[in-house]
Design goal:
240 residues, alpha/beta, 6-stranded parallel β-sheet, 60s Ribosomal Protein L30, Chain: A, 9 helices, elongated, Alpha/beta knot, 4-stranded mixed β-sheet
Length: 240
Amino acid sequence: MLTKNDIKLIKNLRTKKHRILNGMFIVEGRKSIIDFIDSGYSLVKLFSVNEHFNNLNSLKLSYFDLKKISHLKNPDDHLAIFKIRNSKKINEKKLIIGLEKINDPGNLGTIIRTCDWFGIKDIICSQNSVDCYNSKVVQSSMGSLSRVNVTYLDLKEYLKSKSFIKSATFLDGKSIYESEISLSSGIILFGNEANGISSEIEKIIDKKITIPRFNNSKYPESLNLASSVSIILSEILRNS
């Protein structure tokens, strides 16, 4: 049975403040819920329009009630509350993706999914980036958040403390098709959707890379951030 306390908690978990206070987040949809369970996330509660879910006990509710608590306009038949777990130690012997001040939750979710596809296990984000447990991030990552380690830290101080190669995307960088980037270590940084890499981070960068434009126009001014991550990772993997 869906209680008033359940409704209040689920609605509160829409905000980062309450996700941190409660140490919980929401996952919707059968596949994504199974991915988080299989990845060892601790399940707090499971709500379903069906009585049973993948051999797990669930709290049955009507679709009408599910729409009351869902963070989606057109909810799936299942909604789960999971505990947020601590980030794992960053594996610096493999290529890392770094993100500075990413604002769009859809972009972050798609980047997480893209990294999962290409076998990238670690993403590090500046502390002013969108929360990876934002419901839109969780939804657009399609379960990949359960497998990719996302760490929030002081990006500038972290980069200054590391000796590995630091590459970053700039409009005036060297073509990714002419750059040699190793999968065995280092980081590729992507900046804010509107402003790119900050001047503070730019001073720490070893290599500037870009995706060259293949038309003679000055438009569009830039590529979508998530698309840029996909193109660059695809090219790196192709040449590895």
